[in-house]
């Protein structure tokens, strides 16, 4: 705080450097920390309040504008998101399909289906086919057997 210069008692106070410059920091080199005047290092709280209030108001205006003019698009996007979310959860829980295809045919075409179509699709192509005569239990409806 004090030092002797030319035989006189001299008090030196250094101001806070906001923002610090290279020349000002060199001037403070070797000085005591107690010589720093901290009253000059105040934070401008009014400016912080101004910025916070302005950002809050702008955010509020953008949200209300978006809600007012894009309300239906937002609700549509929300329900699409829910549908995709539900569909993803449902797909993860669902067991793999038992069959790849159901072959519907007339009884007059049954010999051709059994001798030519089924071997071609199941053996050569690797499909799992659901056929009336083979995969349905007698006396039950087709719906009950498949599920």
Automatic annotation (TrEMBL):
One of its GO terms (molecular function) is signaling receptor activity. It comes from the Eukaryota. PROSITE patterns: TIR. The chain crosses the membrane at residues 47-70. It is found in: Membrane. GO terms for biological process: inflammatory response; toll-like receptor signaling pathway. InterPro entries: TIR_dom, Toll_tir_struct_dom_sf. The keyword Membrane applies. Keywords: Membrane, Signal, Transmembrane, Transmembrane helix. GO terms for cellular component: plasma membrane. PANTHER family: LOW QUALITY PROTEIN: TOLL-LIKE RECEPTOR 13-RELATED, TOLL-LIKE RECEPTOR. This is TIR domain-containing protein. It comes from Dissostichus mawsoni.
């Amino acid at each position: 705080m004090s030092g002797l210069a030319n035989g006189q008692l001299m008090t030196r106070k250094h101001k806070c450097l906001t923002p610090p410059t290279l020349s000002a920091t060199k001037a403070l080199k070797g000085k005591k920390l107690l010589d720093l005047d901290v009253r000059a290092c105040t934070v401008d709280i009014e400016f912080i309040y101004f910025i916070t209030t302005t950002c809050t108001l702008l955010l509020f205006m953008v949200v209300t504008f978006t809600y007012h003019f894009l309300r239906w698009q937002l609700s549509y996007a929300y329900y699409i998101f829910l549908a995709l979310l539900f569909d993803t959860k449902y797909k993860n829980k669902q067991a793999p399909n038992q069959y790849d295809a159901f072959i519907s045919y007339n009884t007059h075409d049954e010999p051709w289906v059994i001798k030519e179509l089924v071997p071609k699709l199941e053996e050569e192509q690797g499909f799992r086919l659901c056929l009336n005569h083979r995969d349905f239990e007698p006396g039950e409806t087709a719906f009950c057997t498949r599920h």
